Amino acid sequence: MIRVLVVDDHPMFRDGLRQLLEGDDEFQVVGEAADGHEALAVLESRPADVVVMDLHMPRMDGVTTIEHLRTSAPHTRVLVLSTYDTDADVVPAMTAGATGYLLKDVSREELRDGIRAAARGETVLSRSAAGRLVGHVREPELLKPREHELLRLVAGGATNKEAAAALFVSEATVKAYLLRIYDRLGARDRASAVAEGYRRGLLG
Fold it and tell me: Any idea where the HTH luxR-type domain is (predicted)?
């Protein structure tokens, strides 16, 4: 039996996914969580083989959660189930350590197959996500995942203090990340870095 943890900030979606999986004797839903913090807490007492997780969540997002799971639950696979398939979503998630990336419009059987494959450690990708990764391989990575996430926070208006809290790092580390971002994007300040990020398709 494949033990599954469902992580999404929309209760109705979690309920639907639970009902879908519990209708199949092959799956056992060990719990639900609304964000990364809750997911990590649940996994401390209820281990899962596969975490089916959204990326855009409050408090702790999907990419940060995946990074934490690499050390706290290295044998747990993460299958991202998202509405979005932009470079800014797919690439950081897979780089952080996700086993697969599917979109929420997949069929029931495609999702079940994806969870089975993820439990075996096989990479599972929607066609659009695969295309994003191929394009990423062809073009050298410009920003590291954490730098990319910081740029997204800055674009959203976060201060250094707010970004540090969101990334669980110090303000000094945020300032160091920003300097590297400026250097790699050829930017002189926060505003020009964000503008360049949009121009290069890093933000969307």
Answer: 136-201
